[in-house]
Amino acid sequence: MAAPTRFRTLQPWLHETFGGPVHRIALDAGSSCPNRDGSKGRGGCVYCDVEGSGTGALKLGAELAEQLERGLARIARRGDGAKAIAYFQSYSNTYVPIERLDEVLRVVRPHLGTKIVALSLATRPDTLPDQALSLLAEWNARVPVWVELGLEVADDAQLVAINRLHTVADFEDAVRRCKARGLLTVGHAILGLPGDGRAGARRTAEVLARSGVEGVKVHHLMVLRRTILEHWWREGRVEPLTVETYVDWLADFVERLAPEQVLHRLTADSPDDALLAPKWSVHKNAVRERLERELERRGTRQGALRSAQA
User: Fold this and answer.
1) Model confidence over 35-55: pLDDT tens digits?
2) Rounded Cα distance, 124 and 130, in Å
3) How far is residue 234's CA from residue 237's CA, in Å, rounded to a whole number?
4) I need a labelling partner for 30 at 20 to 30 A (CA). Which of 107, 277, 293, 309 fits?
């Protein structure tokens, strides 16, 4: 399909930055989270599925190496000469002792400069100790390091309501600290959280733009089995967005980002047996096409409304 012209997407940026196709390899290091282990709270974020987000059991170096080798083999079978991003995805990957973080990162060392062209670590804005940032900065001298930070919603009351238990200020401070170490940052957002609404989608985009994150991941709220959100949904307290509403709000969101920010994701996936709602029949590529058409209909593009709140 044709590349969008009214917003920036990841694959063209990767091709431009690394000189060819690049694919992510998702890795689970078995990290945990402060609102699961009791240091902040219990139960995790209301939308978080334990099995879908990670095992919670620390993986040995050998196990991580096997995950990486399988991912590299899968990319090699594509036959397009693609390189890889080692993506430590599950839970909060800097919420570990510094020795453990070093052990995890060393798994990728044999492939640096040949098969792996970047590292990406997902974490929370309130689990970024200075030691972790110093270690990531050392790795950044060898290979680009991205830190993916979950904001999700730019409202402190909502962050409490969904049991996320950090603040917007925590997020903005984490971005500043990462950027001071030369690390690229990617901010995460969810549209359609209970009580947030269309105005919330706009507000979250404005905070992400103001923070200066280089990348943005956004998706619609999904109700997964074995989550707190499942109970809310069954009680009628959650109404997931239709694809039409999501695209409408997503256009609002994209208009308020900075023009240079790269959209790493516009939708999220879940196995059919885990997903309760919404059950869209629309493929993620169709969402991207609808967003392009909606921005065209409005006569706008990414960043068109950024100047109004800069």
Assistant:
1) 888 888 888 899 988 654 554
2) 14
3) 8
4) 277
